[in-house]
Amino acid sequence: MSYYPGQGYNGGGGGGYGYGPPPGHPPPQQYYSGPPPQQQRSYGPPSGPSQHHNYGPPPGPPQNHYGPPQQHYGPPGGPPPPTNYGSVSRGSSQAPKRYPPPNYPPPPHLDAYGYPLPQGRHHHAQHARSGPPPPDVPQQFGHGAPEGYTFQYSKCNGRRKALLIGINYFGQQGELRGCINDVHNISAFLVERYNYKREDMIILTDDQQDPIMIPTRENIIRAFGWLIQNAQPNDALFLHYSGHGGRVEDLDGDEDDGFDECIYPVDHAQAGPIIDDEIHARVVKPLLQGVRLTAIFDSCHSATVMDLPYVYSTKGVLKEPNLAKEAASGLFDAFSAYSRGDLAGAASSVFALAKSAMTGDEVYEYNKQTRTSPADVVMFSGSKDDQTSADATINSQATGAMSWAFISALKANPQQSYVELLNSVRDILEEKYTQKPQLSSSHPIDTDLLFVM
């Protein structure tokens, strides 16, 4: 079926893109077969990612019409079990399973969403001091940012829009199970807890028949444009991606490790990945001062996938380049790869180490000068740039560990500061996983302020 300007599903809002409600969520097309067998997975790059290095601009956004999903899946119900971060095999041809929310009361130790009530060792959120709200007056950048710049924290009391992307890669090598569930869980959470409306959401998943709702490279880029279109100060935008992530060679010298981070659309083998430079240019750079964009990337190698220059530690302070630590880590990685007989991996580690040693400080300063933004962009990522993120199983429902932990932390205590939320998410994950979620931003932030979105 083709779509032409003015031929929307039901008209609807969304400015020039005109997003109205589409049909429901039928089983996937024949190109995307059913869920894979029960295996442990990670959100690393799918087997055999295409080596595309030319990322020219896609066609301009056509007048297609997006709309809200017709159903959602309830959030998971308990801590995920341990998992390994290995490769996966090709899935079966079964139709994807559906996981409706339970219609019975939760047990005493769980909340209405099925998440554990605050207890145990989530100490950062348990006694949160719920920092002050964001200030109303413009703030000075400081911290080496361009002189004369000011930024404005968003009050998040304007229009709300959300773009949620979940890719299970049905029928492909590296098939995942939890990504589609992730976005429906996040959707329900945003609606019920943060006053988002389903008619102001786009959900791209690879279990839909509507061709413009499939998370292809072109559709993702188009949806980026929809998300930021006409955004004004104090608007609250939300971007969630759950799927494969990876690294490709950096071609423009803006990465101190020699690699760009990227995400893999469902058609990555034909269209290529979407690298961090392009994500930043399309969803961060165009935003006005005072517009909030909260982003969650539940994928491998995702710490700097939006190229936000300010990364924070669990103490709430900016992370500065530590070349001595990076050198030790790079040498260890190279030695480990060599001992496994992985000569290519050893060479890659040595290349990254050499490039980092030569350009670390210069790249850090360059990125602060060129990637700092007056927009209020905050990202929580599922792992460091050199780590994988887990595809977990929680009470028989597949889900991304980072997506589960983010919702769980805010359900346990919605009144947390930025640094408290970072630590809460880490506390939840470190019981079962090695991945270390990261907090980054487009401008320096006071991490003791109350987290809002």
TrEMBL record:
One of the GO biological process terms: proteolysis
Biased composition (Low complexity): 39-55, 63-74
Gly residues: bias regions: 8-19
Source lineage: Eukaryota, Fungi, Dikarya, Ascomycota, Pezizomycotina
GO cellular component: cytoplasm
One Pfam short name: Peptidase_C14
Segments forming domain Peptidase C14 caspase: 159-444
Source organism superkingdom: Eukaryota
InterPro entries registered for this protein in UniProt: Caspase-like_dom_sf (IPR029030), Metacaspase (IPR050452), Pept_C14_caspase (IPR011600)
GO MF annotation list: cysteine-type endopeptidase activity
Organism: Fusarium flagelliforme
Location of the region described as Disordered in the Swiss-Prot/TrEMBL record: 1-146
Alphabetized UniProt keyword annotations: Apoptosis, Hydrolase, Protease, Thiol protease, Zymogen
Biased composition (Polar residues): 84-95
PANTHER family in the record: METACASPASE-1 (PTHR48104:SF30), METACASPASE-4 (PTHR48104)
Name recorded for this polypeptide: Putative metacaspase-1
Biased composition regions of type Pro residues, renumbered to the chain: 20-38, 98-109
Recorded family membership: Belongs to the peptidase C14B family.
